[in-house]
Amino acid sequence: MPRVDDYKNTLEIAREAFKQKDPQALARNSGTVYQLETKGAVLELPFLNRKIQITWPEGEVITPEGTKELSLQEQGLIMHYLIQATGAPLTNTWVTFREIPSGEFYYSAFAKRAKDPLVQTFGKNPGLLIELGTGLGGVQREEGDASLGFQVFPRISVCLILWAGDDEFPPDGNLLFDASISKYLSAEDIAVLSGMVVYPLIGMAYKKESF
Asked: Between 20 and 30 A from 180 (CA), which of 20, 31, 83, 153?
């Protein structure tokens, strides 16, 4: 289990790489909005249905006033997206986590963080996924028996998909990604990102069931 110090170290390493890059190139490759400031620049991008600002060269991640501050892990993921972005366009082709480069190596982490909790929470009630997910910016899709698409970053799309069970088979589900995602994040980061998409939905489901 990573410690807080590990997340801090990861973030500082990412910030060091961030400040070495041209901010206009960062914005262009990641699909973010570039704003020139007196002492640097600001990049603005949507992240999980929130507008986030990142100062350059400092790499400070700023959330909208009145909203919860992002965790160190979330800040690190945003920085990784910015510094690793290549500008590759969306392919509009979905792939599974196993199909991502090095996905097989990180599959157990992905399943533990996202796939298994998704199925355990919503497998027997896929309609609840649609109800809660659309409230978080998800767009209902036609894959499976229930599915939602999320634009997590400007150039990263994720699809949550469920298949209802029957007398022979239990419910199942998965997360699908645009095939271009490996041009923006590593498999390890994609596993982390997957959990960040699923966890808020699970939290909302538990709260709803408690009333």
From this structure: 20
